[in-house]
Design brief:
With 731 residues, the protein is mainly β. It has three domains: 2-102, Immunoglobulin-like, CATH 2.60.40.10; 109-225, Beta Complex (Ferric Hydroxamate Uptake Protein, Chain A, domain 1), CATH 2.170.130.10; 226-232 and 263-279 and 287-325 and 332-729, Maltoporin, Chain A, CATH 2.40.170.20. It is built from five helices and 48 strands.
């Protein structure tokens, strides 16, 4: 009798609960920083059993047909917690917004992988996110210093801060990655972007996606994407003032002032910075003014507007390869970068769409007013067989380019398990390039148009599949189509879960303005150039351990780069030259990442990259450095970093050890140097809260005073020490 009574009672209670009708639960899911999370699985457990929910555009979710009663909402990804997961569902509509708090090892959220905020564990691509906490803790002197801690990324700079800097992703060329600032593409036409002057100024996050992403971004994204997200006020922040001052070795001076806040649907962050240093070598003084504005406005409950303005104005001396001979004491480089952007986004229910506009302009001027005299390069007992001379250009060589971009994106949730994205991008590129002494500058124009579609789908309970493709129409190379696929599978759930990742994609890149439109007899442009292309694959495994306090990830990758553009001499009697698609290279290897937080205020980070890079088809008939079978220039076979930090809210200490292995290089001076020795650099830093809003900072870079060159001929900075104060008023 008891066996029959209990089920009958449960049925009766359920019937009473349904007497007023079923319940519906809806809301929005955001991170503690206020970012909405799309395609996030939520487990709903309670009176009506258990259900799996996927958030849609702008983090919205809605589940109907619930038995009224008590439930729990639990994130279905590691690295997030909910402080109050319980919710009572009544008949009719119940609204519950969730703010996810970071776990011991937080789940990273990025935009660059899918063009909307998404948890990293639900996309199968390889990516690293440097969040605001990590950027602030690192206290790096430049953005390139930060990127040395990222697996799969190599950097090389011709001297100190502000001098020319390049990044290489998984063996790709320095022009093979798309660079975005708050979604605005800022690469110069042809993919180049000099990161030497980039400083960690007013940054909230830096996202690095490894693998071809042209299916979303079109040209330039052959090897990956760098996405820079600027600082903005977070939820609950009131008006605040931030002041910083710093000084140290090599005449280092940095001053910053910033205002931020949030009120009545409006948020803003405004910063201004001045930085100078003499960079140790003669004629290497770097000076930069930087300004940044990020502001957002909630126009109505479903419509948001966000604007961006960023200006960097810098100058630096360029003494040349001082390791090989006398410095050039009058050569210099001036640069001004302007980035503007605006996004209007409307979201309602399971549908969101928006318009975006961006403008990126760079004005660069290289000057060498006087002839500093002849010299013969020499190094370590070697001497070049010929003298070197200056090629004075008092008026300078200018490289002014601009990119106007317009975009539309729509995102909607279909059939509960699909999140569809479709959009279109239009870009207009212009330039004024060449020697100012010439009668005519090169003034090219080019228009690119692309449409893309992407589907993110949940397969079963644990597999996330992303499929996408793009058709791009470019004035230089015509029409091309590029696909991409990525898969993330949770092999085991829970805090110590296991995730398998795999991705494959194709990339394309347009020629530079000189390669397509050049008018010089010695470097005439080729209008028939094909796009440079890539095919990329990777497979990785991530394991969380120790009740979520440790994370280990291992990824194998294979990247191939085809139809690389190379200069060639058409006629050796006249030295007439042009460009053609000749080169083919390969980068394959392994990446390793470790994050561990054994105690609340102790943390360890490690990264390691093994790269087997090789030239498969030579792009040069002259230089043996570029011969078939040779390793890739300035890309080390091995690179590693290790960071340890300990402390509390009152203060902390940290150390980072960077090891860069031997790499292929060239002196380009006839000395016969083809290898650059590896080096080890140790950086230390400390922070102390002294009270009343005042924080003391100290950073020591290259503590061991290692002597090395990131690029042959250009000595890196020796040991340096910087100390500073930060004052903050308000939240």
């Amino acid at each position: 009798m008891l066996r029959l009574t209990l089920p009958c009672a449960l049925v009766a209670l359920a019937s009473l609960a349904w007497a007023d009708g079923p319940g519906t639960l809806s809301g929005t899911v955001r991170t503690a920083e206020g970012a909405p999370l799309s395609h996030l699985p939520l487990r709903l457990e309670g009176s009506g059993g258990a259900r799996l929910i996927l958030t849609g555009p702008e983090g919205r979710y809605r589940v109907a047909g619930l038995v009224p009663g008590d439930y729990r909402l639990v994130p279905g990804t590691p690295g997030f917690t909910v402080s109050e997961p319980s919710v009572s569902v009544a008949a009719g509509e119940t609204t519950r917004d969730l703010t996810l708090q970071p776990g011991t090892l937080r789940e990273q959220v990025l935009v660059a992988a899918t063009r909307s905020e998404t948890p990293l564990s639900t996309v199968g691509v390889s990516a690293t996110v440097l969040d605001a906490e990590r950027i602030d803790e690192r206290q790096a002197s430049s953005l390139l210093t930060l990127l040395q801690d990222v697996p799969g990324v190599t950097s090389a700079r011709t001297g100190g801060v502000g001098l020319q800097g390049s990044t290489f992703v998984r063996g790709g060329e320095s022009r093979f990655a798309r660079l975005l600032i708050d979604g605005v593409p800022v690469n110069q036409p042809g993919g180049s972007f000099d990161l030497g002057t980039a400083l960690p100024f007013e940054l909230a996050q830096v996202e690095i996606v490894r693998g071809a992403a042209s299916s979303l971004y079109g040209s330039d994204a052959l090897a990956g994407v760098f996405s820079i997200v600027t600082r903005r006020a977070g939820p609950g922040d009131g008006a605040s003032l931030r002041l910083e001052g710093e000084g140290g070795s090599f005449a280092w001076q940095r001053y910053l002032g910033a205002l931020s806040g949030r009120r009545a649907g409006l948020d803003w962050n405004l910063g201004l910075q001045r930085q100078t240093t003499d960079n140790q070598e003669p004629n290497s003084v770097f000076e930069q003014w930087s300004g940044a504005l990020s502001a957002g406005a909630r126009l109505n409950p479903s419509t948001n507007l966000r604007v961006l303005a960023r200006l960097e104005d810098s100058s630096v001396g360029t003494p040349g390869t001082t390791a090989f001979g006398r410095p050039d004491l009058d050569a210099s480089f001036e640069r001004q970068d302007l980035t503007l952007g605006a996004t209007l986004l409307q979201s309602r229910g399971g549908f969101a769409h928006g318009l975006s506009a961006g403008y990126a302009r760079t004005r660069q001027l290289s000057k060498d007013p006087f002839d500093s005299g002849a010299y013969t390069p020499s190094f370590a007992g070697l001497q070049a067989p010929f003298e070197f001379f200056d090629f004075p250009n008092p008026l300078g060589f200018q490289n002014d380019t601009a990119r106007l971009s317009l975009g539309y994106k729509a995102e909607w949730q279909a059939a509960a398990r699909h999140l569809l994205t479709a959009g279109a991008d239009l870009e207009r590129e212009t330039g004024e390039l060449g020697s100012r002494a010439d009668e005519q500058l090169l003034s090219p124009q080019r228009t690119n148009f692309g449409v893309y579609v992407q589907d993110r789908v949940l397969l079963g309970q644990r597999a996330f599949l992303t499929l996408g493709g793009r058709v791009e129409r470019n004035d230089s190379y015509g029409t091309r189509a590029v696909p991409r696929a990525a898969l993330a599978v949770r092999l085991r759930e829970g805090e110590d879960g296991t995730t398998l990742r795999a991705s494959a994609g194709a990339g394309i890149k347009e020629p530079s303005f000189f390669e397509s439109f050049g008018i010089s007899f010695y470097a005439r442009g080729n209008p028939d150039l094909k796009p440079e292309r890539s095919r990329t694959f990777d497979l990785g495994l991530e394991q969380r351990l120790w009740q979520g306090r440790a994370r280990v990830a291992v990824t194998g990758f294979q990247h191939e780069y085809h139809d690389q553009i190379a200069y060639f001499v058409k006629d050796y009697s006249t030295f007439e030259g042009s460009y053609t698609n000749l080169g083919k290279t390969r980068g394959r290897g392994l990446e390793f990442e470790l994050s561990m937080a054994p105690r609340p205020h102790v943390r360890f980070e490690a990264a390691y990259t093994l790269l087997d890079g090789e030239i498969l088809e030579s792009a040069s008939a002259f230089d043996p450095v570029y011969a078939v079978g040779q390793p890739l220039l300035r890309r080390p076979r091995q690179q590693a970093s290790f960071t340890a930090q300990a402390g509390s809210a009152r203060g902390h200490v940290a150390a980072t050890l960077v090891r860069v292995g031997q790499r292929a290089d060239s002196d380009f001076a006839g000395l016969g140097l083809t290898r650059n020795e590896g080096y080890t650099r140790l950086d230390l830093r400390a922070r102390l809260d002294v009270g009343h809003g005042l924080t003391a900072l100290a950073t020591a870079e290259n503590v061991l005073d290692a002597e090395y060159m990131e690029a042959l001929g250009y000595p890196a900075l020796g040991r340096s020490l910087r100390v500073g104060l930060r004052y903050r008023l308000g939240r």
